[in-house]
Design brief:
- This protein has 511 residues and is mostly beta strands.
- Among the domains are: 74 residues, no CATH class; 178 residues.
- It contains two helices and 41 strands.
- It has a 41-stranded parallel beta sheet that branches.
- It is elongated, with a radius of gyration of 30 Å.
Length: 511
């Protein structure tokens, strides 16, 4: 039910917006003139008295380093001065200009349109420090929050739910640090434009983006970085997350003792590099798909060194497509939960490295697709593919292989060389299949090769029906242990070479 109080509040808000759009004074900008630090409400320090919503912009940019402070007294005694249309804080060469919001905990600095911090290109230091305060940027006229300086939010909140936050634009350097605060925004872009760089650190608190997140979106080697730490929670569930977005940019995201909920995540755009690192005590949940290396000549890497990476509702692609350099998902600790994983794409290489921890796939593992180089390398830890086969198969001028040099690989079935070539190499560690392993296809072009040169390959089950079917290719045992319920050698296209190691076979089925 709409109350009279609600109607009064709505009329006040609409009145402020009407002033913003219609006031004849909107062409007037109000600049800070004093060459020294002072309180925001010191009206003689301003060109046209206290800031007002009727002014087109409020600017702090003059020479001599200074701090302009808004505190609780400012907000309560001069509330009309802390609702403004636009805010610009910049600095001349050798000068540091700072706007300080100091414990304005029950009111807010309200910018109805846009906020610009810094110069492009930067010549001085521009800072905005908000301590236990609330900063609101509405973007009513298409304005944005542009951070080409240093912004520090400690406690309190930053609200930009209808506009974009951009850190590092057009050859500038932008830094945003958030500590134990609440951030609500539409989207966040870290680095945009040429020769720019941007860095965002979120150490405690929460950040919620209603649209997208982009880390590294410039060109000409423009880097962008995002660090989540100290129990931070970041939520980006309505738009995609791009790490390393556009031409010749680089993006890196580190999640350390923090939580990240995302929709789709893509790393490595056009001629760009994207990296995601997940450390101990962290949880990253991808509700859609995880694409590593999705742009032309782009590359992406994901490093799981602890915590949990959950991609159970969509596919994981290591090498998404188009000409691309090497792409990698490396698990050295923690827990990786996935639905299905494909390694390599057309003209794109990919590697899945298991160096520790536990990885569990509820669906299939596809290693190799047309004209790609694809490798699964296991040196420690565990990889379980529970409900679907592992398919190792290259097509055309490509290479697909699974190498086990330690740790453990377990699956129901493994298919090597379905339509072209695929290889399984066991040097150490162990591989187990509860149903069977098929090598090649004598009636087609598929060639499969399995080599046991150490470690153990086991294909057994309680019914004694576990099999290795050498249809087209070579099964080689030179060291280690090969144990199988049924060894099927019914095709002349297949062969078994035994030069060493231990062979334990229940039944041999020959021609």
């Amino acid at each position: 039910m709409r109350t009279r109080c609600n109607e009064w509040l709505i009329s006040i808000s609409l009145g402020a917006i009407a002033v913003l759009f219609a006031s004849p004074l909107m062409a007037q900008t109000n600049s800070w003139l004093a060459p020294f630090s002072d309180e925001w409400e010191a009206f003689p320090d301003w060109q046209f008295g206290l800031p007002s919503v009727t002014q087109s912009a409020v600017i702090i940019s003059n020479a001599t380093s200074k701090v302009v402070t808004i505190d609780k007294q400012t907000a309560h005694k001069f509330p009309g001065s802390v609702t403004i249309s636009n805010l610009i804080v910049s600095a001349q060469n050798g000068v540091t200009n700072t706007l300080m919001l100091n414990k304005v905990d029950d009111m807010e600095l309200h910018v109805l349109n846009g906020l610009t911090l810094g110069n492009s290109p930067p010549v001085g230091e521009s800072e905005l420090i908000s301590s236990k305060s609330t900063l609101v940027v509405d973007g009513l006229l298409g304005g944005e929050l542009l951070d080409d300086g240093v912004m520090l939010i400690t406690g309190g909140s930053l609200i930009a739910t209808n506009c974009s936050i951009q850190v590092g634009t057009d050859t500038a350097i932008g830094v945003l640090t958030i500590s134990k605060a609440v951030v609500l925004a539409r989207d966040l872009t870290i680095t945009s434009g040429g020769l720019s760089s941007g860095s965002v650190v979120v150490a405690g608190g929460t950040m919620t983006l209603s649209s997208f997140l982009t880390v590294g979106n410039g060109f000409f080697n423009s880097p962008g970085s995002l660090l989540l730490a100290n129990d931070t929670v970041l939520v980006v569930t309505n738009g995609e997350t791009d790490i390393g977005g556009l031409s010749e940019s680089s993006g890196s995201m580190t999640v350390s003792d923090a939580t990240f909920f995302a929709a789709d995540v893509f790393l490595g755009g056009v001629r760009s590099v994207g990296t995601l690192e997940i450390g101990k005590g962290s949880r990253v949940t991808v509700g859609g798909q995880l694409g590593i290396g999705f742009g032309v000549q782009g590359s992406g890497s994901v490093f799981l060194d602890g915590g949990e990476l959950d991609v159970t509702n969509g596919p994981t692609h290591i090498g998404v497509g188009l000409p691309s350099s090497a792409n990698n998902l490396a698990v050295s600790g923690g827990l990786f939960l996935a639905r299905d994983v494909s390694v390599g794409a057309t003209n794109s290489g990919g590697t899945l490295s298991i160096n520790g921890g536990t990885s569990i796939l509820s669906s299939n593992l596809q290693v190799g697709v047309p004209i790609s180089s694809a490798t699964v390398l296991i040196t420690a830890g565990h990889l379980f593919v529970t409900n679907a086969p592992i398919v190792v198969d290259s097509i055309g001028a490509s290479n697909a292989q699974c190498i086990v040099s330690g740790g453990h690989l377990a699956s129901q079935s493994i298919q090597l060389g379905v339509s072209d070539e695929g290889a399984l190499i066991v040097n150490a560690g162990s591989v187990s299949a509860s149903v069977g392993i098929t090598l090649g296809d004598c009636n087609g072009t598929g060639v499969g090769n399995a080599t046991v040169d150490g470690g153990q390959l086991t294909v057994t089950n309680s019914a004694g029906t576990g099999f290795i079917d050498v249809r087209n290719g070579v099964l080689t045992l030179s060291s280690g242990v090969l144990r199988v319920d049924k060894l099927v050698m019914t095709n002349t296209c297949g062969s078994f070479v035994h030069t060493g190691g231990t062979l334990i076979v229940g039944t041999v089925v020959g021609p």
